[in-house]
Amino acid sequence: MLENDLKKLDFSENLTKIYMTILRLGASRAGDVLKETKLQRSVVYAGLEELVERGLISKTLVKGVAQFTPNDPTSLVSEAEEKKLLAQKIAVSLKKFQAVSNREARLYEGSDIIEQVSDKSLATENGETVYFLGPSKFGVQSNLDSYWRRYHRERVKKGILCKILYDKNTPRNTVDERNKLEGCEAKYMPFGIDQPMWMLIFEDTVAMVIPGDEPPIAFVIKSKQTAEGFKNYFEYLWKQVE
Length: 242
Hints:
Elements: H1 2-7, H2 13-25, E1 28-29, H3 30-37, H4 41-53, E2 57-62, E3 65-70, H5 75-102, E4 104-109, H6 113-120, E5 129-133, H7 145-157, E6 161-166, H8 172-180, E7 184-188, E8 198-202, E9 205-210, E10 217-222, H9 224-239
Parallel strand pairs: 5-6, 6-7
Antiparallel strand pairs: 1-3, 2-3, 4-10, 5-8, 8-9, 9-10
């Protein structure tokens, strides 16, 4: 049983034999270990050096001959703790690597870019919210009334919620119409500036749409951390408006 437990602590079968022999014999020479374990000379010497390096035994010279003495076995605990700290450090680094690896940024362009980007949000799970920050009648989206009617029909059918902060150029009746839709709330942004860009935020995605360019373009960033940051920003602005 003890031998099996040691194997779980990075002890090979041969290293276990060597270590248990040293513990049983006490201060020993390499020849003593060779005689007891019946292992190959190179295996014994390599194992002894590994145990010394791991701090589990000590090596001293007695009349010019190496002698090996077992240290307090509780040093195994220190070794395990050091590995745990290393594992925690590596885990933090791997999480950072994973976050960067999972981040994705793409550029889209085309006359139908608004439909392309907005349709992606219709894959949002039932009960989740999509956020529109700063849309207006600016650029090509001034001709998208029929698209938005279809979009909201699909949104309602899928149980997706919606919050919209319109810019100041949006007609009042548009805001009122959105507030009549199931699962949709709409307000004006708390500041009155012309915005050449609006944002769509959903799940782990942020889309920044520039409808006034020819052709219109959109930057789509897939990053949970970025999306959460913009959702918090949206909610902050939302609370500023009655």
